[in-house]
Structure formats: structure tokens, C-alpha cells
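Please check both lines for our workbook:

___
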Amino acid sequence: MLSRFVLSIAFVHSLLASSCSNRTSRAQSALEEINEDSELSPIINSMINYGVYDGPFIGEGNQPSPQWALFERLSKRATPSQFITLTNHASPVIRCYAFKALVGIKSDSVFSILTHHLDDTTRLEASSGCFINNEFTGDVMIEQVIPIYERMPRKISAKQVEYVDSILLHDPNNNLSSVVFSIKRLEMNKKITL
């Protein structure tokens, strides 16, 4: 009886391992297809070489960002499924722009991708106007759907915001700066319910 149980556990474990392996190889295969795409690959490579996650305007004079122009070109050529794939790209700049594109088209995948990247502490340079910051990739993604400023609309539901906040607040390994805003939201909610 015990040997059947052990064999059953081993079988389930091998199925799960195989499933994860297949998912990883499919994702890698999809990234390779994008890398070989004659329209997308040059745009993506230029964005990687530029190396900064820019807003539409940069510098003291608010000049149009060349990186933003590349992002707009990519947005016109890539499909939603390609953007989903690109959220797992090696470059944090590409991951953030792919996520931004998905937020912009109101993809149903935004929340699941966000939760997948809540532990993404890869650093990237982010620029908007004359501000340049060194940020975590996960923070950049969170800011796209849960803006820091309350007057800006959220792109995910209140329940989803609560879920993100609970992960940020209760994960002892979390290093994202967004936890500060989770604490502020929690304090505001306490005041409202009192």
C-alpha cells in the first residue's frame, strides 16, 4: 500500500515537473520566434541598446523621447500574445514596456502578469521629464496599474489592489519600494472605516 502511495506521489511530481518544463520551453520558444521576427527584433534590440525606460517626454525641455518612439513602433507591430511573451524578456526595459502595452489595451492578462512580477527586483533606469530614477522592475509595473497619485485612475480592481498590497506587506522577502504606498493605502482605509 505504501509503495503505491509513493509511486503515485512520484508520478504526480513527474507530471508537474514535466508541465513546468513544457511551459518554460514554450515561453522560450515564443521569445526565440520574436527574436527572429524581422520587424520586431530590430525595434527590440534598439530599445535594449537605449537601455532606459522613458516616458513620452524627457529632459528639461520635455523633448520627445526616442525610446518612446520605439515603444510606439513596437506597439503598432506586436500582437497582445507577443507582448505577454515579452513580459518575460531578459531585459527589464522590454518587460516594462510590454507590460505597459498590455495595460494600454486593457488585456485580461495584466493582473496575472503583475502578480508574477511582484518579486522582480531587477533594477532599471526610468526617466520621465527631467526625473531619472533607478527603480525595481516590479515597482515600475505596479505604478502602471496602481498610480502613486490618488487622482490618477487605477487600472486594476480594488480587490486586486488589496491582493497586491497584502503580498507586498506580508512577504518578508519583498524588497519593492511600492510597499510604502501599500502601507499608506492601508492607513487611509483604516481612517475611512473608523
User: Anything to note?
Assistant: The longest strand covers residues 52-58.
